[in-house]
Amino acid sequence: MTTTTERPAVATDRAETYRVTFPHLVRSEWIKFWTLRSTIWTLAILVVVMVGLVALITGLDEGDSDGDEGRVGALGVLALTPAVNLAALAVVVLGVLTITGEYTTGMIRSSLTAAPRRTPVLAAKAVVIGASILVTSAVAVALSYGVELLTLGDDAPDLSSPETQRVLVGSVLYVTTIALFAFALGALLRHSAAAMATVLGLMLVIEPVVAAVPWQPLRYVSPFLPSSAGGKVLQPDMVIDLQNSASSVGADLTAWQGFGVLVAWVVVTYALAALLLRRRDA
Amino acid sequence: MIEAQALKKVYGNKVAVDGISFRVQPGRVTGFLGPNGAGKSTTMRMIVGLDHPTSGSVTVAGRPYAQLRSPLTEVGALLEARAVHTGRSARNHLRAVAATHGLAPGRVDEVIEMTGLQSVAGKRVGGFSLGMGQRLGIATALLGDPHTLILDEPVNGLDPDGVLWVRNLVKHLAAQGRTVFLSSHLMSEMALTADHLVVIGRGRIIADGPVDDVIARTTRTTVRVRSPQATQLAELLAGPDVTVTATEPGLLEVVGPTAAAIGEVAAAARLTLHELTPVSGSLEQAYLSLTQDEVEYHATDLTPTNDPPPTGASVPAGAGTEHAEEAAR
Hints:
By secondary structure, chain A is an all-alpha fold. Chain A has helices at 7-17, 22-34, 37-64, 69-105, 107-114, 119-152, 162-189, 192-212, 216-221, 226-230, 237-246, 255-279. Chain A has one domain (22-279).
């Protein structure tokens, strides 16, 4: 209230100093993201679940596999797959809530009033979620590998092998991309329960069912569903080859091609959400 | 300045706002009055770009809201529904909103202090009372020190202290040359706060003018006259612009001449008067007569209607009416 005596002068002055810019929006979304308890909780769960499950699998295996030395190296990579899949469920919740939480509480009205061009808000949110989960999952994967070094010793997967590198990097990217997919779907559906049911239903029910039903047309669809395709990047080469040779029809996607399909899902969902965000009443 | 041009909003087959045009000028408090469901909130949401008009346009400072480079320093808005994430503290909410414009962090503490939220600023908004939520909404609206302030039902849920505070705040801000646009379904509050009125009913503007004019145009001053010779007096007063109603023996209600004129007529005819009281029209009467055909939701009368409570009531009484109306909703 101190700056209002000389209004015209002050007005120009302030309009030049204070403006909505993309870095400002990212800063705002950063504050929003980290000032909710649910963020801290889900990210903690992500790390604990991933590292814990890897420790459990490799730790138990060590006891069982006496005398069968050759198998252990491959298992080291394999152990990461269920751990990453479980961690992905935690980030689905986080990705969805980041946007639907604003709709259920009405916060979206404050966000869009402050930034009426709307789509930059969505982009800023995606940047913040993407970066935060990328870093957190990288930490989780690094810790998981550290655990494997402890439990498996010399039998831990070899860091210099391209397969190990691909699985480790792929795990980080997969978790991040699944979070962005959940976020984009949340932005599209604007409803927490609906968006979570859709993503989790797809990952846990629809995709396994489609993959299991031996009806030929589904064979063509199954490899292109989001987590079936994206999940390839987590699998050892051996498993991918096995999957691809098991069916005579359908696409034989490589690990990175599969991941590309997941990215395409995210891009299309995000574009649709952005389009509707501009059009719909908030 | 806010300017609406043939602004229209249709939801499905329901017309919420039906092609309204109005201007909200700076330097005064403009009240936006209308019954529930009249289209006040929809209009305000269209001003700040949350709802897209079906047709027509509305501009703030000559531009559509979405084209403002710095919306928060131009317009501060408190919308009816709460617009705050319940899991975040009041201070963090304000920090996040301030960050969108790169506002100085000190501004957050300033508005917290201005709205009296110091003691709860660190608490999560989910636990806030309606009144505290409303104060936080006002704090958010004030963050950018805006030239235009849009407040939808700002006194809802506030205690008498808070009602008085909002009233003084908006008058103060208008006196600084800002544009203040304030909605309410409470006529008594408007009579005390607004300088200018835009009255809306069923999506249409039914009155637009200075508060006094709106009252004067829609109500007429009645004079209550009690006299033992009422019948004689009624004959003497009769004229083309005069309506005389005998409500009970010895009591007349006269519309037309002033109390002084009636007194002189009585004196000239040597008639005794026991009472001569001008009963002036109130904003409440004006509002009721303006909106009687425009109310969306009619309640059945359970009790015989008494005289409406006088407007210009003292603050606690005014606040009491509010709570009663709140409860009735």
